[in-house]
Specification:
The structure is a single chain. The chain starts with 6 loop residues before the first helix and ends in a 6-residue tail after the last strand. It contains one helix and five strands; from the N terminus they run H-E-E-E-E-E. Strands 4-3-2-1-5 form a five-stranded antiparallel sheet, with helices on one face. The protein is α+β, with helices and mostly antiparallel strands.
Length: about 100
């Protein structure tokens, strides 16, 4: 039964598989890589005085930046030491 198949019979299935791989790359892999690159740029561009939000939802101001950690001032006389990767984004505005 399989001996009767030709390339012409298999071509639609092959085109479908290639199209699915291209769509997977466009909609899944590429945006994920872009988000990863953006986060990497963020954590390496942190400077003293930056207002940030961590992965845990903690709002703070960067006091010191080290190779692997960052010191965040979260309240008066309260400084937390966090992994740099825990910083998710910069605060956009005062109320946000």
């Amino acid at each position: 039964m399989l001996g009767d198949l030709t390339w012409r019979d298999l071509l639609p299935a092959l085109i479908f598989m290639v199209a699915m791989l291209v769509l997977f790359w466009i909609f899944i892999l590429r945006p994920a890589k872009q988000r990863q690159d953006d986060h990497q740029k963020l954590i390496y561009s942190l400077e003293n005085g930056d207002k940030v939000i961590t992965a845990g939802g903690i709002y703070g101001t960067v006091v010191r930046v080290y190779e692997k950690t960052v010191h965040l001032k979260v309240a008066e006389d309260v400084v937390m030491v966090m992994d740099r990767r825990a910083v998710r984004r910069r605060q956009v505005g005062e109320g946000e």
